[in-house]
Amino acid sequence: MTIRIEPMRPADVTRCAELEKLLFPEDDPWHEVSFLSELSGPHNRYITARDNENRMLGYAGIALLGDAANPEAEIHTIGVDPSFHRGGIGTLLLEALLREAGRRGGPVFLEVRTDNAPAITLYEKHGFHIIGLRKNYYQPSGADAYTMRRPAMAGFPQHTGGSASESAGHGSDAGSSKDTEVLS
Q1: Helices (H) and strands (E) in the chain, counts
Q2: What is the pLDDT of residues 150-168, one digit of tens each?
Q3: Which of 34, 41, 139, 163 is the Cys-Cys partner for 88 at CB 3.0 to 4.6 Å?
């Protein structure tokens, strides 16, 4: 199966909201209006993963923050259709976000549920380290989250392969990426 990573469009928000309900039912899933708001943020970049039948299989978003002298980024969400978990789509989305952040430099932050071992493993594989704990971060479930940080790196390599958790978790914010990538 060929997977294309491309910018999220306003027409995608309905599918994103559907996936949110499947992936994060206990943690206040985002609604269409949340994704639309995120897409309008000038510092946000949101992307989708599509197959060769143009089905949207996943989505991800990052905020590019700070200024040229002190850039940083925050990954806000990665979600993949449960039917396609363990197929490497979450890895592709994460790597696309990290390439976007790498163009500016600076560290990358994220939050992840403390009980999501596959996502934590994915993030650690990509250079993230746990730097803190946020008690009761996810609501209304009250689940705790780790704050993870990846140090500044110039650029980011092309797809490294492998599979990992495709439902990594989300925090807050969204936008549109400039690039389309085709990955097989």
Answers
A1: 4, 9
A2: 998 754 444 444 333 333 4
A3: 163
